[in-house]
């Protein structure tokens, strides 16, 4: 596996991120009165991204970095793509479904991905041609494999927010898909997609995402045997949205969502 050192480094950076986010999570989830105050979250977001960028400056000085908080720095055929806290609204309300997403792209292809969700005590990761894994650490891991559900009416789907489908002008398409399947749940954010990788659900979709929301997820789902595209069937990072399936259902799902 050509990227094992990069994967190990991503785990080290995720460990540091977990320390920061868990400390701040306990501070910000105490009490929300009338309106969620996102100030402590942006503070935690910046602290995580700064920590990761500091490590990369020392360990991978030639690589570019693209992050949600501080944009793009550096140039090169390799770039690290960072979402310091995916699931910010959950984080601020004390809901444990949030994660740090770390990906490495080499010549435009995602080759390493780590999704670390410390409040769930879970982590998912993959490197190109090395399979997808989940567990608490590199040494305590089980392999991820997508489901073998072949029929839409047996399929389970997860999504994040109906309002976003409405804003994208695709609510009817999305509801059409929901009517055709066995069940749907709004597990939300990164969790929907990594559950496709581990075979817990068969379909996940979000109508609008940034590259840092998607990069780490795509390699994990694909290495677990699944398929990731945009709603229109193109590369998700170019499309700006994401549909993940076990592969078997992908064509049918895209047809319902109406590219």
Automatic annotation (TrEMBL):
GO molecular function, one term: metal ion binding
Residues involved in Mg(2+) binding: 68, 83, 85-86, 213
Cofactor(s), names only, from the UniProt record: Mg(2+)
Pfam family, one: Inositol_P
Domain of life: Bacteria
Pathway listed: Amino-acid biosynthesis; L-histidine biosynthesis; L-histidine from 5-phospho-alpha-D-ribose 1-diphosphate: step 8/9
Name of the protein: Histidinol-phosphatase
Organism: Acrocarpospora corrugata
Chain's gene name: hisN
